Amino acid sequence: MKKILLCCSSGMSTSLLVNKMRKVAEEHKVPVEINAVGLDRFESEIKEYDVALLGPQVRFKLEEFKSIAENFGKKVAVIDLKDYGAMDGKRVLSQAIKLIKS
Question: Taking Cα atoms as reference points, which of 8, 97, 102, 11 lies closest to residue 57?
Fold first, then answer.
């Protein structure tokens, strides 16, 4: 089972997206675990996940978080602003899966 971590300022807005992603994963029988956390928990959580996606509002943390994630062999990217704004669970789940496979 692959594990996806979403991260934003406090974990609240990404929690909404997590629910949509979980629904899509369930409908398509994709075995994933998806959770959301705030910025302050990224470093302690990333080692438990395969990939992390950042909310567009915290894109300024990308390089710092990539550096942290590399220590654990993990990948980090920013969620597309359009997909985030639309809360498009299918597209964001697809982005995460592609990042895991790359």
Answer: 8
Token pair 């997590």 is found at 18
- Known catalytic residues are 8
* pLDDT digits 0-9 by tens, 19-44: 999 999 999 999 999 999 999 999 99
- What pLDDT does residue 43 have? 94
Do the beta carbons of residue 5 and residue 39 sit within 8 Å? no
Structure tokens at 99: 């990042």
**28 secondary structure, DSSP code:** T
Three-class secondary structure assignment of 34-91: EEEEEHHHHHHHHHHCCEEEECHHHHHHHHHHHHHHHCCCCEEEECCHHHHHCCCHHH
In angstroms, the CA 39 to CA 31 distance is 26
Whether 69 shows a pLDDT value over 80: the answer reads yes
Cβ contact 56:47 at 8 Å = no
Q: How far apart are the first and last CA of the chain?
A: 17
